[in-house]
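Re: export button greyed out
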Amino acid sequence: MKFIAGISSATALFCLLAWTDPEAARAFVPSTTTKTSSSSSSVASSSSFGLARRRGHQRRSTSLDAEAIKITMPALSSTMKEGRVVTWLKSEGDAIEAGEAIMVVESDKADMDVEAFEDGYLAKILTREGETAEVGSVVALVAALEGDIASIAEGGGDDAAPPAAAIVAEAGPAAGVGAPDVEFSQLDMPALSSTMKEGKVVSWLKSEGDAVGAGEAIMVVESDKADMDVEAFEDGFIAAIITGEGEAAAVGSPVALIASNEADIPALKAYAATLAGGGGGGGGGAAPAPVSALASPVVAAKAPPKATAAPAASAGGRVVASPLAKTMAADMGIDISTVVGTGPDGRITAADVQNAALSPAAPAAAKKGAAAAPKVPSWTPAAGVIAATPTARALAKKAKLDLSTIVGTGEFGRVTADDVKMATGEIKPKKKSVALGAPAPVELPEGLVPFTGMQRAVSNNMEKTLDCPVFRASREIEMDAFNELYQQVKPKGVTVSALLAKAVAKALEKHPIVNSSYRKEGTFFNKDINIAMAVAIDGGLITPVLKNANERGVLDLGEDWKGLVDKAKAGTLKPDEYNSGTFTISNMGMFGISQFDAILPSGQGGILAVAGTQEYIVPCKQAVLGMKKISKMTVTLTCDHRQIYGADAALFLKTFSEIMMSPKSLV
Amino acid sequence: MRFFLASLALVASSSSPSATAFVVPSSSSSSSIAAAAKIATTSLDASKCGNYDYDVIIIGCGVGGHGAALHSRSQELSTAIFSGNDVGGTCVNRGCVPSKALLAASGRVREMRATEHLGEFGIKVEGEVTYDREGVARHAKQLANRVKGNLEGSLVALGVDIIEGRGILVGGGAGAGEVHEVKDATSGKVYTAKDIILAPGSIPFVPPGVTVDEKTVYTSDGALELQSVPQWVAIIGSGYIGLEFSDVYTALGSEVTFIEALPNIMPTFDREIAKQAERLLIRDRPIDYRTGVFASEVTPGIPGVKPVTIKMIDAKTKEHVETLEVDAAMVATGRVPNTANMGLESAGIETSRGFVAVDPQMRVMTKHGDEGVVIPNLYCIGDANGKMMLAHAASAQGISAIENICGRSHTVNHDAIPAACFTHPEIAMVGPTEEQAIERAAKEGWTLGKSQGSFRANSKALAELEGNGMAKVLYNKESGKVVAVHIIGIHAADLIQECANAVAAGTTVQELSMMVHTHPTLCEVLDEAFKGAVGMSAH
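Workaround output, generated via the alternate export path:
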């Protein structure tokens, strides 16, 4: 195990030893500070690590004339108070290199090599072999230049009174911004291993404003060797966190300020802002408001509520309960004194106990309709119980949320980690997950989604159709001939939709009644055969119209149809292009639907629901096996029965069937 | 065998020859050589071991009794074992073995759900990792049954007679000497043996005020059945058992609150290790804890209807401090000897909190303290003597007892018995804690040395992306002998054996530092520590 003696130049005022305790992974931050009461000691503001307790107004800077580097006694273990120099591996005058072992120190746990941090020359040994020195006290002086050895050796002879010559500019960060005049200490990034240059704060175990006790772990720092807990050295309050979680700080630079008094936190926060700027100096302009020493400490107004035993025991009175109630209460683990009795003279009955078990919060309310009691009653925690899981509590504390303001979705209504995260907005609300270990539930949409304009129009139109008396007629149509034709004309660009529209239009020519509209006064025959076809588009349903479908060729219709569908999808159909239909086709054949019927759009006389084509085996005398395979499709016509009758529909379907079975006429 | 028959006369019991009511003359001393002619009381072949049915009868068929039985047979002693209908005992049926199954299954769930960690390997798990609680529980049950079967098979194969009932000592009495008779509590039949080993084991301790229903409030017995995976479970006690179950529960998705009566969490562990464990096994997990409090009143709940209520009082002031309402509570507050109703009192043996006093040779003493008198042919091993409540310690003690029965004086070095806690990562140790070692060194006048190896500097650990942990070696600076080793880190339980062997053999750190460790293995963590102790550097 090797340790580096931290050596800093005199300009850094106070030199401290990088300390590490790899054996003790608990990384106890040693007190490496000066005694503020001692007027002669120099107190650093920036280079100290550990909790450098300082009084701002007592800060004073002194230094040595020459570029002297001090070597101090390192804390080699958490319990080490002083160390004995076993051996000096270097003599006065020797050159030393960074990383070179210069002495062996015996701690309470083991002997360890102490290495130098910087190059230089060993000028003066203050603590000789066999002597002991307090942790943090100077054991040797190192000259940066060989020529300075003599002067440093002379001057540094008495560390207790170092020559107070050159007053060095405040080494504190953001020169000019002094620390507030309050009692506080600074927590610096400790050196957790000999090779550690900077450390990453993995997590803060305390938040700003939290009280910390000496020896309590306050943060976890990641070094190259291990993650280590850093403990507080003194009692106090975390005033400001300078290095946030996940951020790194150079060894020795401040990561947090710890106030002795809670009231000083705001002042230190402001001061911390100047430190946080660090060398960058960005921002940090705001001078910290000097804090009056008289500022009365805020007395914790919120004394922790002494949770009294949960259910208020019935005052003094003897519990009168039936034996069964008592046994049942004992079995259920219910304190019978909390149960409200409804029996004679308020005696507790078995039913009361059952009710209490079901809804302990309101046993009186539950007594009436025991049978109607909800199966999974809501649970009201007993007084003083914090109904939150450990993680929820920790998260709420961190987010400074009051748990009582969060609605719990966990067992017995307790607040879970997710509930807190939802309250902080970290996660979006989602459905409570089912039993642990069960497959993830499907995220189903929930709640009201307002209609779009199109959806509103569709629903209005559908409601209007309720006034119309309709009937339906279905017919199976052999499709082999049609399919054969379709395969022939498909290469030319003819579509099924166009063929269907054309076939329907041709049939309507022969049965104009089916193309008619109902009027109060009588049947209104439409001059044109305009075939509307339903198209499902994103967010609704629309019926583009192929006008005069009976008179146009299928290629023309197909092209027209393509354009209409594109327009429908783009939402650019003109009203005339979707509300001028005289007859509608709804085709769901492509979805494999075997049969369905459609709702008749108001204003039209009929709508044809076209289902999918299916194959059947039918008897056939000509066939070798006495049977053959045919394709059939079922169409269902819905008609307004006010002017169109069943026979009309039947005849129309017969014609339509004939056209479909000899479709040559379509092309 | 012959030796024993010959020596029988010297240590033979002063038992009366009554076949049914075995009355022992109170005047007789344990050194009596008045060998009463004893008539065989059973149909078993008495001739093969003189006047007794068996050379050795073992009461209790856990790992301790099993270890004793195996060694007894290897010494060609005729042997019977009372199983009390519990072949395998706690370890196999309700302890170490099934808990390892739960830890193995839950550990995989934890690993596969650690997407960030897997990502560092370049592994991605698509979709949610799920488990079937019943399947996990079944794995534990099947493992226990299998191990139990193996254990029983080995006894039968070696010619050990298994008597199914619970064994009860018969005879003895105030100030009496030897005890030779054991009654089968089930059949009432009495068997005799020259030497008797008590290995009744232990049962979970349930503190006063705690009502156990084994459904919502349960001991390890109930927990191992994994009847539910509660959203929030309180574990009372933060020892090995509690810690292992917190590992299982959090891996399966529960949150855990530890309730510890002592001022520190994990009080039985080395402090330094406990602090690391707190960071690795508690703080980064959905676990919190209360220390210095008793769970003074624990009331079972009804799932979905009523939570488990736990009232906590300050351990010192006894004032109520907090009430928790949780889904389940596990009581892991230690174990107490299973020594009631086995005839100890009538045999003149006083127990202390159920523990049977034994001398270093595992011979039963009539009472704890200086006034206790050794009963020369009666031994007690395992949890019942409280020396070290571990399965393998019991087995070692059983073997030791047989050695002593064979006339080769033997004592178990408990300092060399390793122990492990099978959390992820594991904790393992041999020898005293550092705190105890410091005290011991001061008392015995030697200097304690300490050296450490870290997992983060270990290639294999880094390859596994499991760099957390440490191994510390405590040794006697003067002699160089290893005093204790404490490890927390991946596979710590497998690493400790080398150290246990070193402690047992008195190997020095100087010797260990020159022994070659395989590269790249986790053993190099120890290599680093051994070398560090003598001022050498490891890779």
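The mean pLDDT of chain A is 73. The button fix ships in the next patch.
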